[in-house]
């Protein structure tokens, strides 16, 4: 295995130091290190972070390889500074059996760019009618610990309770797509002034908030772990704040796009801005940013959702919801939070690794730690060109925007997956 000597790099914004990576770990840290056999990486002006971990990625394989594959999504993740991603279950076939989650897990290992941890479906076929093979997926080679019907809400409260009870046996988590479907039928965007002006059916904030309120009560009653996907409203923040104050075992995520983009984007009728849950208001964004800084919202998760051209470049009403996120997430976090490196490391690496139970990930670069890390140039600015993205799809809402920060290198267990801003393989 190649050894790397990263010179004069700032770990989480601290004074410059050298890092020697050897044998899959950070072997040494200090000034003036020497290693004649190591490849030298000039870290001057760069910041070293623990490798990012995404709790919410859609890799589309199996079934929609025209939009993304495990390999192309893994490459996009590595270029975004990620060393681990959790792959959502809404594939075709759905990842609701041990066989499918093991297939995704093995494809991730074969790609070798990031650790791909499958998320299993809560219900068979995401239909919300009966529980999937949760125990079999947990006992599989993939060792699934997070279960989600993301894209669909587990709307039946009895079924949600049963799922929460079931996963307690192996310290699992149910990750809920919070959307009361009877309140969002036919919805096209956030219910508010812009939707009224455009004449589009609205997706009310209460549809999210009601499910979160119900589920934190169920989790509290059962004594189980709940994770709330892509929180998007100020009201949801209030529900989470109260639940955490009571000691409920609930964690929550926010996406980069919900931290930056408002529902005014829909006024262009450009389907790239169609997402579920929808873009909300400036007041919601302010509440989400505050909650993220305070820890009421635990993590930033991309909800990376690639789509084939025909599923996005069409009329708004027929377009599939979702946006790309892996290659731009850290830049959005820098734009929103500024260079608060410890906070960024907590929200984008340590906390998601803890939630997912990924023991090798989320460690700050230090002697003895697994060498899962990323190097960032905070002074650089990059213009997002869709044709230059590693993802097989092009549905980025940040096309032609200039964003702060550039991923210079990413290491997975001491193996360089990105060097000088380019994928190694």
Summarize the structure.
With 425 residues, the chain is an alpha/beta fold.
Number of spatially distinct domains: 2
Class of the largest domain in CATH? Alpha Beta
Q: Which superfamily, in CATH terms, is the homologous superfamily of the largest domain?
A: Metal-dependent hydrolases
- Apparent shape: globular
Weakly predicted, low-confidence segments = none
Description:
- The protein has helices at residues 70-79, 98-111, 134-139, 157-167, 193-198, 205-222, 234-245, 256-260, 282-294, 309-312, 329-337, 341-356, and strands spanning 4-11, 16-22, 25-30, 39-42, 47-50, 52-57, 82-87, 115-118, 146-147, 173-176, 189-190, 202-203, 225-228, 250-254, 299-300, 373-383, 402-412, 415-419, 422-423.
- The protein folds into 2 domains: 4-47 and 367-423, Urease, subunit C, domain 1 (Roll); 51-356, Alpha-Beta Barrel (TIM Barrel).
- The model has no long low-confidence stretch (mean pLDDT 98).
- Helix 1 (70-79) packs across helix 2 and helix 4 (157-167) crosses helix 6.
- It is 29% helix and 22% strand.
- Strand 11, helix 5 (193-198) and strand 12 form a beta-alpha-beta unit.
- The strands form 4 sheets. Strands 1, 2, 3, 4, 5, 16, 17, 18 and 19 form a 9-stranded mixed sheet that branches. It has a 5-stranded parallel sheet with strand order 9-10-13-14-15. A 3-stranded parallel sheet has the order 6-7-8.
